[in-house]
Amino acid sequence: MSPVRSDFNLWGWRLTLLTLVHVMGTVGYMAVMAMAPVIRDAMAINAAQFGFFMSAYFAAQFATALPAGIITDRLGVGWSLVLSMALIAFGIGIFSATTVFEVGLLAMFTMGLGYTLVNPATAKGVLEWFPRQRRATAIGVKQLGVPVGGLLGAGAGALVVLVDWRMVLALPLIAALITGAVWMLFVQRPVRVSGDWAGVWA
To answer: Tens of pLDDT along 116-154?
Structure first.
């Protein structure tokens, strides 16, 4: 990881990017929730089926939380967040392009996979970049991205009155791709750690 050269680089540029990935991880699925009535009609599904979309999103996080941490240790902060944004954008793209319930489940699962990488990667970024006495402050700031993403996603419920729901989802899709592209500036050579899986399970 490139060294921190200034306080602005640390508390401005990098912390903003750490916060932004939490926004991107939250806004997509919150937008889907906010547009539930419209999406249910478009897919011809009932409320119980729609609820499975959220289950798929969180099931992905439950199933892959441990692997996501190992991947982050191996790939580093930059590559992990690039991969995260790519998965989230891909999931949003699939969801917005289908009217098939089962494909929607796969799309939400993919979005959940993307968000699984956000927490360990941003935490690792804070631990590597910020001084020990200010790490909790940095974590508190980056976590603001979750409620901000929730607020933006909830706004989709109002926007969908004016714009087709697929076009509404195009906004977080594009934003996630741009965010991932910016994180390419922070990629590093993957680290090979011998016995990492065996060590964790032991």
So the answer is: 999 999 999 999 888 888 899 999 999 999 999 999 999
**How far lies 43's CA from each of 111, 126, 144, in Å?**
19, 41, 33
User: What does R_g of the chain's alpha carbons equal in angstroms?
Assistant: 18
Contact 121, 78 (CB under 8 A): no
Please give the Cα distance from 51 to 30 (Å, whole number): 13
CB atoms within 10 A of CB 124: 18
Q: Which residues contact 16 (CB under 8 A, 6 or more apart)?
A: none
CA 134 distance to own-chain centroid: 24
Q: Taking the CB of residue 88, how many other CB atoms lie within 10 A of it?
A: 32
- Report how far apart, in Å, the C-alpha atoms of 19 and of each of 15, 22, 78, 143 are: 6, 5, 14, 6
Among residues 106, 102, 171, 129, the alpha carbon closest in space to that of 18 is found at 129
CB 98 within 8 A of CB 107: yes
Tens-digit pLDDT profile for residues 149-190: 999 999 998 999 899 999 999 999 999 999 999 999 888 777
Can you tell me the distance from the alpha carbon of 35 to that of 41, in angstroms, rounded to the nearest whole number? 10
